[in-house]
Amino acid sequence: MIKHPFNKSWYDKYDNVAKDTLVNYLRGVGHNVGEVKEDYNVDVVSTKKDFTYFNEAEVKRAWKGDWPNHWAEIRIPERKKRLVEKYKKENGVLNFYIFRSDLKQVFRIKDTALTEDRLKEARGRNIRAGEKFFHVPYKEAELINIA
């Protein structure tokens, strides 16, 4: 697996604010959220009714304003495959939340959209040659406005 090297400055800038925004959103739609701690698994575990939700937050730094029509898909790094595999065994729902850079909108993507046939190489200025991503058509994701 080829992947972009870890960028601590991006992590420091976006990780906590994305998690906090996700926690506030989830609580606002009736989820109970426990303590959020970094354990290198999903970012936020929540419950609602009789279900457990495993929630992963990421910020797409290039997404500014309305979603560009020429971006046909949302790309989720191959490294997130480990979360899909890990939580398949759990009795719950795994969701990926991809935030706009200003955190005012987010796409919710179900783990079932991350299939092997969608795992492909991608190109971009911050993507290493050979690096793979899940290519999920944005029309399959739920766009949510964050108040």
Strand and helix map with partners:
Elements: H1 8-28, E1 32-33, E2 44-48, E3 51-60, E4 73-77, H2 81-88, E5 93-100, E6 105-110, E7 119-121, E8 132-137, E9 142-145
Parallel strand pairs: 3-5
Antiparallel strand pairs: 1-2, 2-3, 4-8, 5-6, 6-9, 7-8
Task: Summarize the structure in words.
This protein has 147 residues and is α+β, with helices and mostly antiparallel strands. It has one domain (8-145): 3-Layer(aba) Sandwich (Trna Endonuclease, Chain: A, domain 1), CATH 3.40.1350. The protein is built from two helices and nine strands; from the N terminus they run αββββαβββββ. The protein has helices at 8-28, 81-88, and strands at residues 32-33, 44-48, 51-60, 73-77, 93-100, 105-110, 119-121, 132-137, 142-145. It starts with 7 loop residues before the first helix and ends with a strand. The mean pLDDT is 91.
In short:
With 147 residues, the chain is α+β, with helices and mostly antiparallel strands. It has helices at residues 8-28, 81-88, and strands at residues 32-33, 44-48, 51-60, 73-77, 93-100, 105-110, 119-121, 132-137, 142-145. Helix content is 20%, strand content 33%.
Key structural traits:
9 strands; alpha+beta; Trna Endonuclease, Chain: A, domain 1; three-stranded antiparallel sheet; globular; 147 residues
